[in-house]
Write a structure and sequence with these properties.
Blueprint: H1 2-12, E1 20-22, H2 30-37, E2 47-49, H3 57-64, E3 74-76, H4 84-91, E4 101-103, E5 128-130, H5 138-146, E6 155-157, H6 165-172, E7 182-184, H7 192-199, E8 209-211, H8 219-234, E9 242-244, H9 252-259, E10 269-271, H10 279-286, E11 296-298, H11 305-313, E12 323-325, H12 333-340, E13 350-352, H13 360-368, E14 377-379, H14 386-394, E15 404-406, H15 414-420, E16 431-433, H16 441-449, E17 458-460
Parallel strand pairs: 1-2, 2-3, 3-4, 4-5, 5-6, 6-7, 7-8, 9-10, 10-11, 11-12, 12-13, 13-14, 14-15, 15-16, 16-17
Helix pairs in contact: 1-2, 2-3, 3-4, 5-6, 6-7, 7-8, 8-9, 9-10, 10-11, 11-12, 12-13, 13-14, 14-15
Length: about 450
C-alpha cells in the first residue's frame, strides 16, 4: 500500500465505523503515519496494528500528538525503526490517554544514547509494554526507571536486550514496579548479583511471572529464583484449596521448588496439565512433605511414563489421592502393574488413563487389583484394545462400585454388549461412553432402546 495508499484512504474514505485497523507489512513510513494521525474520522478506533513497516520517531511522535485517536487502547509497532525518543513520546503522550497496550518489539530503542526526554507523565492506563528484542542496556533501564516510565505497568517484556546485573538491580530497586505481575528478562546478560537482587526485591511483591531463561547466573542464584517461582505459583491457590498450574511451561526444577514450599500443604487439588516436566519432577512432588492431604492430582499431557507411575506407586505421601488423571502421559501396562501393586494408592475413586498404550495385560490388572476396588469412574479411551479389554473390565469382581465407564475408540463390537447386563460391574453403572467403536446403527439402537439397560442414565455412542 505504501504512503500513497494511506493518503488515499484518509482523503477518500469515512473511517468512523472502523474499530480495528491492521496496516502491517505495507511499507508505510513517517509520511504515511503522519497523514493517518491527522485523519479526523478515526475517533472510534480502538486497535491500530502497524507492525513491519518503515516507521521511525517522527511518525510515532505525530501519533502521540494526535487528537484524532481518543479511544485507542492497543497499539502495535513491532519491527519498525523507532528509537528511545519515539518510544518515550508514545509512553508519555497526553492524547493517547486510554492506551493500555504498547508493542515496540524489534525496534531500535536503546541503540543510541539519547538525552532527549519528552515532557509529561506516563499514560496512567498503560498496563502492557513490550520492548523485546531492542538494544536496551543498563543506562536505558536506569533512565526509564528514574523517569517513572514503568509506573503502573502489569506486564513488562525486556527479553533479548543488553541488560546485565546493574540494570537488573535498577529494576529490583524501583518502587515504580510495585504493580508489576509479569517481568520478562530472558536472553539478557544477568548474572548472580542481578538475579539475587530481583529475587529478593521488596518492590516486586506482586510478581507472578519472572522469566529469566538464558542468562548468566549460576546454581545458587538459580535456586533462589526457583524459590521465588514456587512462591508465585502457590499464590494461585483458590479459596476452595485448588491449585491450577496448567500450561505454564513448568519444568522439573519448577516442580522441585514447588514441592519444597510449605504453603502446598493447604492444597487439596493440583492440576499440572500440559507442562514440560517428566518423572524426575513428579518424583520430587511425590516425596514432598506437604502433599499428605492432596485428594486430586492432574498430570495429563506430561511425559512421566512408567517411571512416573512407579514413583506414584511408592509415594506414601500421596496415599490420600482419590482422583488421578494420567491421560496421555506415556504409561504402558508396566505402569499399571506398579499402580496395581502400590501399598499406598488404595483410595482412588476416579482414574483417567485415556490415550496411553495399555494392552490386554494392563486391562486385566485393572480388573483384578484390589487397589481399584473403590473406583467409581474409570476412563480408558483410545487404547484400540477391542472386545477383550472391555470384557476384562466387565468380568471384574473388584470394580463393583464403578458408576462411570469411558471406553471410547477401542474397537469394541456388539459381541461385548450381550455380556453387559450379566456383568458384576453393571448394577451400579449409570454412565457408559462407547463412542468411536465398532458399533453400527442397529447395535446403537439395541443399546439405547433395550429395557435391560434402564439403569444407565447416560449412554454416549
Amino acid at each position: 500500500m505504501g504512503d500513497a495508499g494511506i493518503i488515499f484512504i484518509c482523503q477518500s474514505k469515512d473511517l468512523s465505523h472502523v474499530r480495528e485497523l491492521d496496516l502491517s507489512w505495507n511499507e508505510i513510513s513517517d509520511k504515511g503515519l503522519q497523514k493517518l494521525a491527522s485523519c479526523n474520522s478515526l475517533k472510534n478506533l480502538t486497535r491500530l496494528i502497524l507492525n513491519s513497516n518503515k516507521i521511525a520517531d517522527s511518525g510515532v511522535q505525530s501519533l502521540s500528538l494526535s487528537e484524532n485517536l481518543p479511544k485507542l487502547k492497543f497499539l502495535e509497532l513491532a519491527y519498525n525503526r523507532i528509537t528511545q525518543f519515539g518510544a518515550l513520546s508514545l509512553v508519555r503522550s497526553s492524547h493517547l490517554k486510554r492506551l493500555s497496550l504498547l508493542d515496540l518489539e524489534m525496534n531500535q530503542v536503546g541503540e543510541k544514547k539519547s538525552n532527549e526526554f519528552p515532557d509529561g507523565t506516563s499514560i496512567p492506563d498503560l498496563k502492557i509494554l513490550n520492548l523485546r528484542k531492542n538494544q536496551m542496556g543498563n543506562d536505558a533501564i536506569s533512565d526509564w526507571s528514574q523517569s517513572g516510565i514503568f509506573e503502573g505497568l502489569n506486564h513488562l517484556n525486556l527479553g533479548w536486550n543488553n541488560i546485565s546485573d546493574a540494570g537488573a538491580k535498577v529494576l529490583a530497586n524501583s518502587p515504580t514496579l510495585n504493580h508489576l505481575r509479569d517481568l520478562i528478562l530472558d536472553s539478557n546478560h544477568i548474572g548472580d548479583p542481578g538475579a539475587l537482587s530481583l529475587a529478593q526485591s521488596k518492590n516486586l511483591t506482586n510478581l507472578k511471572i519472572l522469566n529469566m531463561a538464558d542468562n548468566n547466573f549460576k546454581s545458587s542464584a538459580e535456586s533462589v529464583l526457583f524459590n521465588l517461582r514456587a512462591r508465585s505459583l502457590a499464590e494461585k491457590i483458590t479459596a476452595d484449596k485448588n491449585l491450577n498450574l496448567n500450561a505454564l511451561y513448568l519444568r522439573n526444577k519448577d516442580i522441585k521448588a514447588l514441592s519444597y514450599y510449605q504453603k502446598l500443604e493447604e492444597v487439596r487439588s493440583i492440576s499440572l496439565r500440559n507442562n514440560l516436566f517428566d518423572y524426575q519432577g513428579l518424583g520430587e512432588l511425590a516425596v514432598s512433605a506437604f502433599v499428605k492431604d492432596l485428594k486430586c492430582l492432574n498430570l495429563m499431557d506430561n511425559s512421566i511414563g512408567d517411571k512416573g507411575a512407579f514413583l506414584l506407586s511408592k509415594s506414601e505421601q500421596l496415599s490420600n489421592l482419590e482422583i488421578l488423571n494420567l491421560e496421555n502421559t506415556g504409561i504402558t501396562s508396566v505402569g499399571i502393574l506398579a499402580l496395581s501393586q502400590s501399598p499406598y494408592l488404595k483410595s482412588l475413586k476416579d482414574l483417567n488413563l485415556n490415550g496411553n498404550s495399555i494392552d490386554g495385560k494392563g486391562f486385566q490388572l485393572l480388573a483384578d487389583s484390589e487397589n481399584f476396588k473403590n473406583l467409581k469412574v474409570l476412563r480408558v479411551s483410545g487404547m484400540s484394545i477391542g472386545d477383550k479389554g472391555f470384557q476384562s473390565i466387565l468380568n471384574s469382581k473388584t470394580l463393583k462400585k464403578l458408576e462411570e465407564l469411558e471406553m471410547a475408540e477401542n474397537f469394541i463390537s456388539k459381541k461385548s454388549l450381550s455380556m453387559l447386563t450379566k456383568s458384576p460391574v453393571f448394577p451400579n453403572l449409570t454412565k457408559l461412553d462407547l463412542r468411536r467403536n465398532r458399533l453400527n446403527e442397529s447395535d446403537q439402537l439395541f443399546l439405547a432402546q433395550s429395557s435391560s439397560f434402564g439403569n444407565l442414565k447416560s449412554i454416549r455412542l
